[in-house]
Amino acid sequence: MDAHRPMDEGKRRGIARGMTRRAVLRRVAAIGLAASAFAPLLAACRREEATPAPGGGTPQPATPAPGVETPTAAQTPAGATPTPTAERAVLNYGVGAADITTLDPHFAAATQDRNIVDMVFNALIRYKPGDSTQFEPDLAVEIPEPEETPEGKQVWIFTLRQGVMWHVGPQSEAYELTADDVVYSLQKSANKDRSAYAADYAGMTFEKVDTYTVKVTVERPLSPTLFLPKVANYNGGFIVSRRAVEAMGDEAIKTHPIGTGPFKFKSYASKDRVELEANNGYFRSAPKLAGVQVRFMSDATSRELALKSGEMDVVSGVSDSAWVQKINQEPKLQADVFGVGEVAFLNLNTAREPLNDIRVRQAILYAIDRDAHLAVFGGPPVAQNVFSVVPAAFMRGGLTEEEAQQNGVAYGRDLDRSRQLLAEAGLGGGFTLKMVTSEMDAYRKNYEVLQDELRQIGITVELDVVDHPTMHRLIREDVNPIVIYVAFRPNADVYLTQFFHSDSIVVTGPKPNTNFSHYDQIDDLIEQARVETDPKRQEELWKQANIKILQDAVGFPLHFINQVYGRSKAVDYGHELKASLALYPGFTEQTVVRK
Amino acid sequence: MVRYAVRRLLLAFPTLLAVLTIIFVIVRVAPGDPATAALGDYASEEAVRALRQRMGLDRPLWLQYLSFLTGLLRGDLGKSLITGQPVVDQIRHVLPYTVELTLAAIVIGLVIGIPLGIVTAIRRNTLVDYVGRVVSLAGLSVPAFYLGILLIYLFAVRLRLFPALGAAEFSRPGAHLHALVLPAVSLGLIEAAYVTRMARSVVLSVLHEDYVRTARAKGLPERIVLFGHALRSAMIPLVSLIGLFAISLIGGSVLTEEVFARPGLGKLMIGAMKQKDYTMLQSIMVVYAFIIVLINLVTDLLYGVVDPRVRYE
Question: At a CB cut-off of 8 Å and minimum separation 6, what does A277 contact?
């Protein structure tokens, strides 16, 4: 080594410093080389296209439970010999969430839970993939017509498909779905201790007629619009396996769902991923995908980059038209914008001064600039205009722009009229309103636009920004004179009941829910519509309710916000995409990734 | 030394208990509750109430606290309020990912930072020093998650050399290391900036010590002065700094794991916060607190290794 080489004193004095520097640098270089020891090893590793789940996820049982029948080609629908799994691609899906909440379909509410449940389970009927405005048979062979009993009850008879097999579970075999499963499942949905949607099944009884026939009796007849969603692939309508749930218990199915759908559960790694694999015995046909890997990716930038790098095939996007434009500029990518859209709307508190004066409420509505609120999301296609709280674009009972105009409830910005109404109410000098808003963009930005709009007519809005759960708690404690709420509800009845029926008035109502406006003038319309079995008449009643809400200036729709996803153009969903109640594009047996 | 270590661990218990109590209270004082988070705003009050009851959240707070503590004493971290899975299984699954990320970042930080710190110290006020200081200042100013995004964009999206996300399983070491590179570098580079500045400062102060002047006066070559005398004593403060770095890296890994969608304690914690999963959150905090206590202990023990004057009394 240099340090041991003989060196005369003069030379030492002369070059010691320089030599030392070189030596130090050499050593630094040596350390640097050590640092890059990773490099050759890493460079040798070519990037993986799709990484399987790291160890530690819920293990797939190595062997089926005793008596398990693994689905065979004979169980595959006629003429649908599946492509070997190795030749099919796994779809990598990056979802904007930290984890699942529950995969028990009767509790699933979060977007990511709904997505997975949609792929694993079926229902008696289903919303057409990609189009939540149409029903088609699913486990039932057809959509029945209701019958009325002499006692005035309504009966729906469902005939089940034969040969539908349950996925193999850790403690259950792949047996055939029968009426026992359907009755058990619907009874579970109606049980408040075993379902979050029990209230939807009040007054309903479920009976097995024979192995493939189920009878549903409804105490007070319902129109198809209100009945069919209860037995469709949404909320409590999903059918769970009686044997699997009884064997595993309600707790275990939260992380290991057993269904009849095109994809079966494979593994779950908390806060990381859920893996689904193709159910080759699926009754429609074997899936064209080998499986779906759902990755939990809360960070929107990470999802976008993973989509661009090709590691993700589909990702949940950002609710902004600028993002849509940005993704569409990428040659290999496509942004999908589709319903269902969440409606952002104002609720004006009629129990609070000075908003108890209709002139003040109307003045506020005439100050609203719909375009300014649309701009919060970059305008269309992500955010679009809506003219009643019930969105006509997604369900019956909402008002179109023409209908709102014909009935004189379209409003539209008119500051002079606004100021005049305030002057008539004796508030020409203006006043102050204090409100809380969530930190979430959909809320905060809309409140900020409203603040600016009201400032122009002399109303000062003092905004207090709080976190999202706190806002939900506070508005339910009735702190806001004006509540901006962003929500989707499956039909007009739920929208109107939860937000405008007197039973639902916050704090003081008999069943406090989300009636922030303390409104009680359309109870009869809501109740009449609920029991109206003629769809046209029912729709008319809902429209009247919406018109009344706007005439009384208690609720005002700002816009609806669509679902936004990014995908590789190699992905073909296998259906057109208009609206999805499962809040994702929908991955079915027809979905394919052409890699 | 063993007695000292055991005593230190026993002394850590009051600290851990205080931390646990604070965590227990904080997660419950925070607004929102797991039942609402789980069911969404569509669910009725009745459904939310029923779920709260099933989760045991309707029990008095002191009872919840007591069962949390007794569970801990039995080594039971409880079950996730949301998924019902044992928390210990989930932590056991992700802990290796956080540990390896932290260790890799420490290695990168030290391998880059120490030489750079030494060079900038011995070439003080030269171009090398200025460049080194500017680079390390830049490193200090960039948050790890932002650097992570830049690295993903450059190396995963543009150059396609490394995966943008996650981690492969441990059974495939090649792919596993491959996936580790970007997260480790994004965390390690920032740590390197800290190490560089610390190392520079320590070496500069040591170089002004009397014994270094004496060594030079004896006519020893500069490299012997530096590596034989100066750096040995400079190692002592650096050891304690490494302990601090490890603690800060464990904290810093939270966002890095999130950006790289990588399993780990940090990602687990953020998820638990979003879901208001009290059991999971307080258990993760317990693990973090324990790790920090452990790192401090190891740091103290390492003092004895690098500094013979230290005695464990």
Answer: A85, A263, A264, A266, A290, A291
